[in-house]
Input
Amino acid sequence: MNQSVGGIALELAGVTVWVPSGERLVEDIDWTVRHGETWALLGPNGAGKTTLLSLADTSRFPSAGRVTILGRTMGRVDIWTLRAELGAVNPSTQMPEDLNAEDVVLTGRTGSVHPMWKKYTADDHHRADELMTVMSCQHLRGRQVNGLSQGERGRLRIARSLMSDPELLLLDEPATGLDLMAREELLSAISVIRTHMPQIAIVLVSHHIEELPASTSHALLLRGGRIVSKGPVAQSLTSSHVSACFGGDITIRRHLGRWSAQLADAWSRKE
Ligand SMILES: Nc1ncnc2c1ncn2[C@@H]1O[C@H](COP(=O)(O)OP(=O)(O)OP(=O)(O)O)[C@@H](O)[C@H]1O
Output
């Protein structure tokens, strides 16, 4: 299903998730992600980010409320069909170490761990090549996974997830554990996706605002399972909201599209 920019990709309405012990992991969440938007899902440890992402990738059902993904409401749809239309990227996903990079990307076409050679057409090979260029990993084409760095693997995983032409891309802490250059290469590649796929909706989970790509258009800040702020970054990603979210007097700055955070008293001591 090809959606146009502005249409709803993901909608959570009155969503609460609780566990058998009665603990509420997220509560009263209303959240709409539209095609063409890149959302950052931010919050401290235990805020509920993974819980929200697991609702969006269909691996968890809400205890109350409604989750609608690409026009289909959870509980009324075959989740396997829906899952095939999502791009969900988790840095802990293993790739067969003996495959070369292009083959790994191709497996995204069939959603399989190992290549299903008979199913790939010349167009698939061409698309894999294009996506490796988008994610700045075309030079890795013939290299085996076991020789790739964490940053290279991260870009490859995203290229692989784009092979199914997902309308919704979910990125779980993509920059965690990367060194400075690998992080910067990954974040600029994520921004480039937007240029090539203007209609795709992207949700990216992070603890750190320094790890947000410049293309981030919206943010949802969570604390203790509840929303602190949400909406376009100019309104939601402010010093006061980030301070309330992480607990501290935090000053946010934006420079050349990217964000940085500093404790306000640390800043005043420097001056
Ligand atoms: N199955 C469970 N049973 C009980 N509590 C849980 C369960 N899963 C998660 N929690 C709790 O729910 C809260 C939210 O967890 P979640 O993993 O969504 O947070 P998070 O923002 O992703 O955290 P982190 O940044 O540390 O990954 C945490 O307090 C966590 O301990």
The chain is about 30% helix and 30% strand. The chain has a mean pLDDT of 91. The two ends are 54 Å apart (CA to CA). Residues 19, 23, 25, 43, 45-51, 207 surround adenosine-5'-triphosphate (CB under 6 Å).
